[in-house]
Amino acid sequence: MKRRPSHRVAGALLWLAACQRQTPEPPPSPPLPPGSAVLLAVGDIASCDSDGDEATAALLDVLPGEIATLGDTVYPEGTAEAFARCYAPSWGRHKARTHPVPGNHDYLVEGAGPYFDYFGAAAGARGQGYYSYEVGTWHVVALNTELRAEAVEEQVRWLREDLKAHPARCTLAYMHRPLFTSMRERDNGFVRPLWEALDEAGAEVVLAGHDHFYERFAPQTPGGEVDAGRGLREFVVGTGGRSFYPLEPAPANSERRIGDRYGLLRLTLEEGAYGWEFLQVGGGIGDQGRGACH
After folding, report:
1. Residue 172: which of 215, 209, 202 has the closest Cα?
2. Bond before 249 cis per omega within 30 degrees
3. DSSP string covering 236-284, please?
4. The sheet that has 205-208: what strands, in order across it?
5. What is the CA radius of gyration of the chain?
6. 113-165, pLDDT tens digit by residue?
C-alpha cells in the first residue's frame, strides 16, 4: 500500500486520473508483419510519492510485448522495502516479461543488492547487470552504466564479444544514462565506449532513461555527427512515472521532445526495419516514425 502523497503530488495525480478517464486505453497496435515483435521501454518508474507508475503500468496491462526497464526502477533508492511497497504493486505484475537494467538510484544501496534480489536471473549476473537476448529477429543488449573502473572496461570487452557472436542484421541496446540529452549539466561521456562498440558493430537503436522526459535524436555517431546511413538513433524515455524535468534548449540533432507526459515507447521490431510510438498516459501518440536497419 503506497503512503499518502503530498499536496503537490496529489494535484498531479488528479490530472493523471482525469486523463485516464478520458482515454483509458492506448491506441490498438496494428497487425504485426510476419516475424515482428514488440518491445516496450521506459525508465525512472516507481515511487511511493507518485501514482505515475500506476498509470504507466495500466498501459502495460493492455499492451503485449517484452518490457525493457531503463533504470531507476524505484525511488528514492532501491531498498528491498521500496521494491515491495512502491514497485511491486504496479509494475511488479509484469515482472515475468521484464528485462531490467539498473540506474543510479538502484545503486544508492551498496551493490544494488535489492535490485538483483528482486529481479533474480533476469537482471544478469550479480555485480555485472549486463546481458543480451533476442526479440524477434533482433539482437537486444542490456547494459549497466553504474559500474566502476575495471568493471566498466570488462563490460566493454564483453559487449564487443557479444556483438561478434550475434551478428544480427538489426541490433538494439539500452542503458540508464544517455550519451545525448537536453539536460546540459549531465556528463555521461563515460558511456561513449559502449556507443563506440555499438557503432562499430552497426547497431541501430540506443535507449536510455535518467532524464525525466521523452526525447528522440536523429541517427548520429558517438561523436554527435549526423549519420543518416549508419548512425545510432537514441531515445531518452525517462517517463515511467516518477516526475518531470524541465526541458532546456534542445541540443544538436534532437528531433522530438515531450516534457510533461508520462508514457511508454513501443518499438515494433521487424525484419530489417523498426517503428516507434510514444504512447502517452491519457491517450494519444506523442511521437511516431520508422527506421531501417543498416
Report:
1. 202
2. no
3. EE--SSS---PPPSP-TTEEEEE-S--EEEEEEEETTEEEEEEEETTS-
4. 131-135, 138-142, 171-174, 205-208, 233-237, 214-217, 254-258
5. 18
6. 999 999 999 999 999 999 999 999 999 999 999 998 889 999 999 999 999 99
**Cell numbers given for 204:** 541501430
The x, y and z cell numbers of residue 36, run together, are 515482428
Closest CA to 108 of 81, 73, 76: 76
56/102 Cα distance (integer angstroms): 19
With cell 521487424, the residue in question is 270
pLDDT at 150: 87
Rounded CA gap, 146 and 187, in Å?
Answer: 13
Q: What is the DSSP string of the chain?
A: -PPPPPHHHHHHHHHHHHHHHH--SPPPPPPPPTT-EEEEEE-S-B-TT-SHHHHHHHHHTT--SEEEEES--BSS---HHHIIIIITTTGGGGGGGEEEE--TTGGGSGGGHHHHHHHGGGG-STTT--EEEEETTEEEEE--TT--HHHHHHHHHHHHHHHHH---SSEEEE-SS-SS-S-TT---GGGHHHHHHHHHTT--EEEE-SSSSEEEE-SB-TTS-B-TTTPBEEEEE--SSS---PPPSP-TTEEEEE-S--EEEEEEEETTEEEEEEEETTS-EEEEEEEE--
The C-alpha cell that represents 196 in the structure block:
563506440
